[in-house]
What we know:
By secondary structure, this protein is mainly α. The chain is built from 14 helices and 4 strands. Strands 3-2-1-4 form a 4-stranded mixed β-sheet, with helices on both faces. Helix 3 packs antiparallel against helix 4 (about 75-110), helix 3 (about 30-65) runs antiparallel to helix 9 (about 180-220) and helix 7 packs antiparallel against helix 9 (about 180-220).
Amino acid sequence: MAEDQDDSQKTEEPSQKRLSDAREKGDVPKSAELSAWFVIAGGTFVVGAFGGPMAKSLMSLMTPFLAQPDKIGVDGESLHRLATTITAAVAGALALPVVILIAAALAGHVLQAPIALVPSRISFKLDKISPLAGFKRVFGKNAIVNLVKGLFKMAVVAAVGSAVLWPERHHLAELVSMPMAALLPVTQKLSLKLLGAALAVLAILALADVIYQRFEFIKRNRMSKQELREEHRQTEGDPAVKGKIRQLRAERARQRMMAKVPEATVVVTNPTHYAVALFYESGKMAAPRCVAKGVDDLALRIRAVAEEHGVPIVENAPLARALHATVELDREVPPEHYKAVAGVIGYVMRLKGKTSSRPGAR
């Protein structure tokens, strides 16, 4: 009951990490129908490309056994030589077709999922030998689905085979009386027609099974809202911790910024809502550089530090707002503000020329 309840709570689509973890554990959407289709396609190619030569080779090998059985030696050495000859001939005739069939079978699996060694899949587990687990596998949902698919596939292939062979029904009886040399091409032709029709139908069934397996793969890896939150917390970090880190970083950045205010040449204010501290050395810099800026409480702190260290404060509301919006920290003032800033810097320089002490706010 608890297990059903847990499954009912898994209403969210699986994340990419969940799907990747499932694949690493060997859980992949793999269709047995597609793998079988590749094997049959490989067999069809073998029949079309090698069926005739392979049959002729085997026929020439077996003809002496039927035409002249009395000339076959039955002593030990003759039988050994005969067995060696037959084995070598059969192996030579079947070697390439067998390699093609093995390659087709591997392709059917590799194209769906890369071959990977998953130790957990081959490790010993008690549930693999448990009668109850075996009963569930035999009579479970997947077993029933596979049984229905198998019966349906057999019925469809049988119907297609009947439809292909029905027009040839009058010629099938003649095959018995045909000589072997004439029988092979006819048999090959009928086999290719039958296999081609079966491949066409099985391709549709394989595509449907691929879609079904993909659906089942997504379904069994669905997640609950709690699992999504836990995964997000593990991958992205706890939001509360991240917020605290951002807060600490911002505070340290403000401390470094405030440490540069005493070195500023002038602080432009609005008069309390905005504050921008500029630093300029005549002849060494192309334009003044912003060393600190802030609004509201931070602006008041910048102004207080400037007053404490005797940095000139100039109230210019439009310029303070414009500089705060367009100038980044440790960046030079953009050209569009050169004229206004030059006026402020010039004013400060004139004040410094008139008195040795730095004036306060004007």
